[in-house]
Amino acid sequence: MVMHRSPLGLLALLLLASAPISTRAADCGSTASPKLDWQECSKKNLMLQGSDLEGANLFSTDFSLTDLSGGNFKSANLEKATLVRASLEGSHAEGANFAKVEAYRASFANIAAEGASFAGAELQRANFGGARLSGASFEKAELGRADFDKAVLTGVKFSFANLSRADLSNATFGGPATFERAFMFLTRIEGLDLSAAAGLEQAQIDLACGDASTKLPSGLSTPATWPCPAEHE
Q1: Rounded to the nearest 10 degrees, how much is the dihedral formed by the CA atoms of 23, 28, 32, 37?
Q2: CA distance 190 to 84
Q3: What's the rounded Cα separation, in Å, for the pair 230 and 233?
Q4: What range does the record give for the signal peptide (predicted)?
């Protein structure tokens, strides 16, 4: 008796035969390596300095208190990762996705993160001292008391960000940055050249802390309340 396969059965066999052989995604116990998958893994309180995690999937990974300094996070996806008190100091993270991370008191000092996204991130009291952040996005980020000492912020987007008490005073703006609707209560902008900044309005400037050397965009004026008194925590 001749057996006839249904058209659907033949199609299924053809699809199986043509499907590429896939490798299993790396699990939470795998060693750090490029393009691994540590999604939603717990990597808390570890010493992972110098790890090469370029292109890795670190979505919602918990790195609380972990030392990731000197690592490679180029093009990695860290969206919704927990980086509370973690250190990425001196790391490379060009084009990385830090959107919606929770990174209270995290250190991004001296990080190279040009073109990275920190959109919607929780970055209160984070340290960005010496960071290279040209073209990065901090749109809708929480940056209360964040420190940008000597950071390069050319082309950075701070639209709708909360910059309350953040310190930008020693940062470098080699070109335009965007501050549309940013909340700038006591934001330190002393000595900055913001003449090319986009989206700044007088109400924001009136809340911020500048001085006689702060350069503002055309049409905005120096508030009579400047300079602000030194702040003591």
Answers
A1: 50
A2: 29
A3: 10
A4: 1-25
Residue 89: pLDDT above 50? Answer: yes
pLDDT digits (tens, 9 = 90+) for 161-194: 999 999 999 999 988 999 999 999 999 999 999 9
Q: What sign for the dihedral angle of Cα 89, 91, 94, 98?
A: negative
DSSP secondary structure letters along 146-167: -B-TT-B-TT-B-TT-B-TT-B
CB of 174 closer than 8 Å to CB of 154 = yes
Query: Quick one: pLDDT at residue 81?
Result: 98
Q: Which residues contact 48 (CB under 8 A, 6 or more apart)?
A: 32, 66, 67, 68, 71
DSSP of 171-187: -B-SS--B-TT-B-TT-
Comparing C-alpha atoms, which of 115, 32, 95 is closest to residue 66?
32
Q: What's the pLDDT band for 5 if we cut at 50, 70, 90?
A: low
66 by DSSP, 3-state: which? Answer: coil
* 4 has a pLDDT exceeding 60: no
